[in-house]
């Protein structure tokens, strides 16, 4: 199999249901999802798997990589009758995992700086790229039909990356570095107990 086809030499690419320009907002959206996926893969190579709880995180991140592929495929779909892959259950799963990580990490009151353990820092990059992907999908949805689960998934995923980044630092013995000019912006946020 050849990696190059020369079919894109004039600035177009194939999507499900036709061809579009390579700078089309649809291509920008699923391309940014792919970029986020690459940072998730990098974070997995940086996890300290000698910490037992991070083995579970690695499994979660692998699942997310598959779901990001599903999301990218759904965003590349211009055909109304072509089935979508990403399901609402994935959004619910992210919410459940976030609740668990929030319950297991120190209470957050102020904005924090990205960093700490290598995998945590990389997942903060994945978080910001995911936010950019979400913005691109919002722009796409203004002009074309999309699979709306993708938008909800990306919104929750960026929050998940924040929560799991803090968890990785916590179990790695790294403290959050608070933004020194931050007010207490998270006061009064409810926390889910592991017993509920």
From TrEMBL:
It is an enzyme of class 2 (transferase). Signal peptide: none annotated. It comes from the Bacteria. It catalyses: 2 cob(II)yrinate a,c diamide + reduced [electron-transfer flavoprotein] + 2 ATP = 2 adenosylcob(III)yrinate a,c-diamide + 2 triphosphate + oxidized [electron-transfer flavoprotein] + 3 H(+); 2 cob(II)alamin + reduced [electron-transfer flavoprotein] + 2 ATP = 2 adenosylcob(III)alamin + 2 triphosphate + oxidized [electron-transfer flavoprotein] + 3 H(+). Pathway: Cofactor biosynthesis; adenosylcobalamin biosynthesis; adenosylcobalamin from cob(II)yrinate a,c-diamide: step 2/7. Its EC number is 2.5.1.17. GO terms for molecular function: corrinoid adenosyltransferase activity. The keyword ATP-binding applies. PANTHER family: CORRINOID ADENOSYLTRANSFERASE (PTHR12213), CORRINOID ADENOSYLTRANSFERASE MMAB (PTHR12213:SF0). Belongs to the Cob(I)alamin adenosyltransferase family. This is Corrinoid adenosyltransferase. It comes from Halobacillus kuroshimensis.
